[in-house]
Amino acid sequence: MKKTKDYFYRMYALLLVVMLGLLLLYYLPRSIGGWEPKPIDMLADLRVERSTEVIDTIDLDVYMYETPTIELEGEDASHSDAQAIEQEQVRRAQVYERIHTESWSEEDSISTEIVDYSQTRTGLRRFFSSLAKCQSLDASVRIAVLGDSFVEGDIFTDALRSKLQTLYGGSGVGWMPMSSTTAGFRMSVRHDFRGWKDQSMLHSKRERHIISGHIFRPEGSAWSRYSLPKGMGAFDRATMYYQATEPLSVKITTDSGEEELHLPATEQGVAMSTYTYATPPTTSIKMALTSGAGSMTSYGIALEQSRGVTVDNMSLRGNSGLLLSSLDVDLNQTFGRLRPYDLIILQYGLNVANAKQRDYRGYAKQMKRAIQHLRQLYPEADVMLLGVSDRAQRSSGSMTTMPAIIELHKQQEMLAADLGLPFWSLLKAMRSIGGITQMAAQGKAAKDYTHLNHKGGRELASKFVEALEIEKRYYEAAQ
Q1: Considering 287, 305, 323, which residue would you say is the last residue of a domain?
Q2: pTM above 0.70, yes or no
């Protein structure tokens, strides 16, 4: 008689293997080649996390409104120089306190101010000077927002652009890539394309990149079309940024009709070329390569007006910001001359924060070198650092801010103080409107408790513009 096989132990062995596999998923890295897997923690409800309430009230405020120590060396170390700087600091501090008192009532206590860690609180001087010229001389002001997946799809920057253009003029969406993985959920522009190969800094580190982090190579008859939604203001110029060893032919289609353009090859020894196509105000443009594609590298295209504010979204999913230290000097200095920026805003951190890590001093040290390199490449631009945004994890059965976020935020603000940069806390601003958990419950953020949607981005952008306007009043009063 044949003995019946007993699968009882095999079943339990299989269950054990599955359980071990699920437990090991907890140790997956935060980002894998730009892809961000959803965190899996089978023991989340059993873990005892450090109390975020204690961290919230102590660590987060350690470096707020501290004035960095003045250190003068060599010829600058004279007593009179130090005394003059100290007197200027005192004068500006008094002006700021007056503006602060006039601008913020007790009801505004939930608002989040910009903390300028430059010696005499002049870290945004060039930006506000350009903004004043924009109002009086019909000049242009350019802002670049460099970030990670928190701002991809033009979230936050769309509303920031709209609000600043309403206040100071301007139109158009600014910088656009030739192709994009987030085109499907970007609301500020409809973006269709074909035939472009995207080589980002994350995956093609041997290539030379500008601050956008992307370059594009055409494959065959490549084309891109950009259409602004109804109600958005038109643009009157489209500027193409490229490098080509041979002349190019490009067919341009706008609301006004079609036109064949002939773009010259990039001169030998020159890192980048531009071609600006002036058009009657339009809300749609298509660019199709008809010849010379094999010799071309495209960096992107800018759709804007000749005056007013332009806000360029330059997001790169999975970027921690450290890649800025590898930016090519010649290429970026050329780009900075061709497309000068008045303000560069840095938004990074989500790809660095890790539930299993609390010490971010190493990251801050590397980020310091990256920002110093960026400032050397774009010396005419003011640089502002945004603190990491709110991100929640399950602890004791409820969603609370990750302790790692608080620690990273602290290091970022210390970094801003060390480099003398203006600093704005995304974390505090988000908490002033309920934090990521409440925002997710209200339909303003995704259920991953990490990313905002466009509704949440608009609310956060309002907070930022509010802070900018208060800071602008201070600059005007301190002149």
Answers
A1: 305
A2: yes
